[in-house]
Amino acid sequence: MMFPLLQLGPLALQVPGLFLIGALLLGARLAEGEARRQGRSPEALSNLIFYGLVSGIVGARLGYVLRYLDTYLANPRGILSLNPSALDLRAGVIACVIVMFFYGRRKHLALRATLDQLTPLLAALAVGIGLANLASGNAYGSPTDLPWAIHLWDAERHPSQIYESVAALLILVVVWRSRRAAPYPGFSFLLWLALISAARLFLEAFRGDSVFVAGRIRQAQVVALGVLLLSLWLMRYWYERIQSADG
Length: 247
Description:
Blueprint: E1 5-8, E2 11-14, H1 15-37, H2 42-67, H3 69-74, H4 89-106, H5 111-136, E3 150-152, E4 155-157, H6 160-178, H7 187-203, E5 212-213, E6 217-218, H8 219-246
Antiparallel strand pairs: 1-2, 3-4, 5-6
Helix pairs in contact: 1-2, 1-5, 2-4, 5-6, 5-7, 6-7, 7-8
């Protein structure tokens, strides 16, 4: 069950890219709305998102080129390829975070308030990534004989991409509806981080492409557990700091 291309006459559109672009546009709109609600500048946030996006794409492309450097040295023109599958997600995220952090500091943007403003964007992108994986066949599920299995890669499999998209959508709704009741700046971001990590911890068990360490331990679950514990600790730590400041 894959639909990587949408053919419109002579034009072939990459469906995974469409899902990601749609999620980005929706998330950016929600993020700007949250900035306005907080009394912050939506233009400053838009610039932050723009620079983060550009640096993320460039970083992801360079990271992919470095991984396959010998291939690109033999064919330097390939470096300029616009193929969205030729990206290193990890390198892109690192580049995006670094640029956004230093840009935010340069513009004196409050860190925790800015993280809350970016949370709807991150939550929407999580939904878009799940749908993009469904379209491309990535992040596929393990084999199953359940009635809602999908046929993918010559087997009936858990629709893990749908599981993750639905979980991400529910988390987006929860975070969006609870943002007005956040007890302190940064809470909405930590809430999203905790929920998305808990979802990954649970849903990773249905994946068929997991990387295992030390036998049968799924690497993604170890990372998700660490992020979950860190986010919960920060929730308590920031709350105690607010309480001590008020006292």
